[in-house]
Amino acid sequence: METYKLWEKDIPLFDENIKNEENSNSFTLEAYFTDEHLDGNPRSAMLILPGGGYRICSNEGERFANWLNFLGVNAFVLRYRVAPYRHPAPIIDAKRAIRYIRYNAEKFNINPEKIGVIGFSAGGHLAGCLCEYFDKFEEYSRDEIDKISAKPNLAVLSYPVVSMCEDYAHQGSTNNLLGDSLELRKSLSLEKNVREDMPEMFIWHTLEDSVVSAVNSLELSKALKNKNVPHSLHIYNNGDHGSVLAENIEGTRHWSNCLKEVLRDRGFLLR
Known about the structure:
Layout: E1 2-5, E2 28-32, E3 43-49, H1 60-71, E4 74-79, H2 89-103, H3 105-108, E5 110-120, H4 122-132, E6 154-158, H5 171-178, H6 182-187, E7 201-206, H7 215-226, E8 231-236, H8 255-265
Parallel strand pairs: 3-4, 3-5, 5-6, 6-7, 7-8
Antiparallel strand pairs: 1-2, 2-4
Helix pairs in contact: 2-4
């Protein structure tokens, strides 16, 4: 595993007074490369956005990165800013991460047109924000990296937080990211801001999820359909929140096989 800083200096929205442990490794990328990543065959890459209710960045990243490496996909885990940082700091970090990977595609032996994002829980919300706001909430260009497209080529949302304003919203994520502003909550609710030029999405959730209701994924799927955005929705009965690969959960464990087939069909896998 190698670590890269998204900015060496002039970090946007940086607050020197925020020194809590949860932000101690913020705006860094942890890179997990396949053993063959420099063999001359450009590989795909996935940016991983862990969950944690915009309060922490949880530990889903390394586990899923290793699974992607097994498939021959390079993986990058982003440590984005969390509370007391608020919007738009996390999305600025996520957009910079996509740009950083794409800008360094030749160095990392990555196909710049095969860069996806996968987010878990609140990280799923952030992944959705990347798809809906890849050209919004822009800071001024600090360097050549900022001139690169921040739009992912594919998005995977795992048991995602979607709404920021409805009764099924995850209130912890909403409060940490946005505070009390109803207008801001509506503008950052994924189901209310779908656009036709979004990348394809793969969404999965469980009905047993007692933390983030599966209604989030169902409502997002309806909104995507209304805008003719290509996507697939996978709802499983079993498994509580944070199941990640769900290896030992009957039925639900097949979600990763479904994703594997999507990655293969979209040219993200070389084997």
